[in-house]
Design brief:
mainly alpha, 58% helix, globular, IreB, IreB family regulatory phosphoprotein
Length: 76
């Protein structure tokens, strides 16, 4: 799950989400709320630029992200 079908040197979806979460958390934001805001709106200002998080999360298409999250949730 969450494995990229791209080259192995690229980060997985899970890695990207963890990196963005950590960057938001380090800056004192409610990371879950900020990430949900980004997913729903597409507005990158929900994601901090700290640790390049804003650019990193753009490597995932939002609709693909929602699909992966739903799959992971339903498998539990």
């Amino acid at each position: 799950m969450f494995n990229s079908s791209e080259k192995s040197d690229q980060k997985t979806t899970e890695d990207i989400l963890k990196t963005v979460y950590d960057a938001l958390d380090e800056k004192g934001y409610n990371a879950i709320d900020q990430m949900v805001g980004y997913i729903l709106s597409g507005d990158p200002s929900y994601i901090t630029g700290h640790n390049n998080a804003r650019n990193i999360i753009r490597h995932i298409e939002r609709d693909d992200l929602v699909e992966e999250l739903l799959r992971a949730f339903l498998k539990k």
